[in-house]
Amino acid sequence: MTDLRERVARELERTRRRSAVLTEAVDDDDLIRQHSPLMSPLVWDLAHIGNQEELWLVRDVGGRDPVRADIDHLYDAFRHARKDRPALPLLGPKEARAYVATVRDKALDVLDRVHLEGRRLTEDGFAFGMILQHEQQHDETMLATHQLRAGEAVLSAPPPPPSTVDVRGEVLVPAGPFTMGTSTEAWALDNERPAHVVDVPAFFIDAAPVTNAQYAEFVAAGGSPPLHWTRDPGGWLATGFGRTAPIVPDAPVVHVSFHEASAYAAWAGRRLPTEAEWEKAARWDPATGRSRRFPWGDEDPGPQHANLGQRHLGPAPVGAYPAGASPLGVHQLIGDVWEWVGSDFTGYPGFTAFPYREYSEVFFGPEYKVLRGGSFGTDAVACRGTFRNWDYPIRRQIFSGFRTARDARPAELA
Ligand SMILES: [Fe+2]
After folding, report:
1. Interval 318-335: pLDDT, tens
2. Would 386 be classed as within a structural domain?
3. Does a structural domain hold residue 155?
4. If you measure from the C-alpha of residue 359 to the centroid of ligand 1, how many angstroms do you get, rounded to a whole number?
5. Distant-in-sequence, close-in-space partners of 126: CB < 8 Å, separation ≥ 6
6. How does pLDDT run across 13-72, given as a tens digit for each residue?
7. Is 255 annotated as a binding residue?
8. Residues 56, 122: contact at Cβ < 8 Å?
9. Residues that bind Fe cation, according to the entry (predicted)?
10. Alpha carbon of 107 to ligand 1 centroid (Å)
């Protein structure tokens, strides 16, 4: 148990450093400004991170008195749409920083003293894992806000690694059952549960996400350019975090909507993979028939496996992560870009909401499409092979790309 508590404390600290980078890179005016009606002011995200930590770890798990019950309503994401948040009497930058620090001290004290066993919410440190992932998800949201903000570049990171292997074409995933979702991953969220067997007919899936060069051909044929692309006499430019440069031809395309991804696939004579196909390609081990935690195995993601955790501020070229490929040779399923799949966000058979309906269940239905695999902006702790993200199909301010798939023809299986 000491190990678990130490791990939680270490991850909370590491994650908070990232939140600090994202909120200290700009001045106070910039923090309270709304950079896009799709996004909250950064100062809202910061105090909201603290407020969720207070609600779950300090009050619920810890049974402690509220720090600031008076501000709960301001940071309830269901109460106020993002576009309305700048008009609220939000905590200012200085107050927000003091608030999250106070909450963190109390949460760490709770972590030291609480009994983790005997209550589902705290078993294996679940509530701490949930709050940790919540902050990491907001770190990705804040990174997306940075991408939408005008002005000079304020974030920097080394470029992603180069391509070292030639990855092209498609991979056959044979027909048969596989285990989708999880019942054993301690910090998996309710929508990833329970593990269940899905029989998937044979299909082909792209060995890599669709690249900028491939997507540019679709644009030339009449498709819409991704968000942040601009036309230059010499070709397409892309702006990332305040820097404009020619698109990287062999890097996965990013900032495309579900509709654009689907249109590309149709133009290419293909389709998006279903969510089950994506997960089978990512997790199914043909040698054992079991599902792995990640394409490369059960080991937590390292820098050799995937472009995660905001180590780099953009997707890596195709072929940059051979150590992260699946046994069948499907590359870069984890990290780089979220991949739209052709499935609605729904509950798995046997789904039960936990710890609250608003986490996932209220979003189930045809309005939302699923994205899988995480992006360069996603933390490794919040990116399992079973992890499911969802958004409106028109959205493209997120770090979204895709790969395509097709049915296998009987003659191809003989
Ligand atoms: Fe949130």
Report:
1. 999 999 999 999 999 999
2. yes
3. no
4. 9
5. 120, 186, 187
6. 999 999 999 999 999 999 999 999 999 999 999 999 999 999 999 999 999 999 999 999
7. no
8. no
9. 48, 134, 138
10. 17
Which residue positions in the chain have pLDDT lower than 50?
A: none
Q: Is 146 annotated as a binding residue?
A: no
178 closest CA partner among 294, 273, 276, 274: 276
Residues 200 and 73 in one domain: no
What spacing in Å lies between the alpha carbon of 301 and ligand 1's midpoint? Answer: 24
> Any known ligand binding at 138?
yes
Q: Give yes or no: residues 208 and 130 share one domain.
A: no
Contact 173, 202 (CB under 8 A): yes
Cβ atoms of 405 and 211 within 8 Å: the answer is no
Q: What pLDDT is attached to residue 413?
A: 87
Q: Structural domain of residue 111, as residue ranges?
A: 2-148
Instruction: Specify the number of domains making up the chain.
Output: 2
State the distance from the centre of ligand 1 to the C-alpha of 331, rounded, in angstroms. Answer: 30
Q: Is residue 159 part of a domain?
A: no
85 among annotated binding-site residues: yes
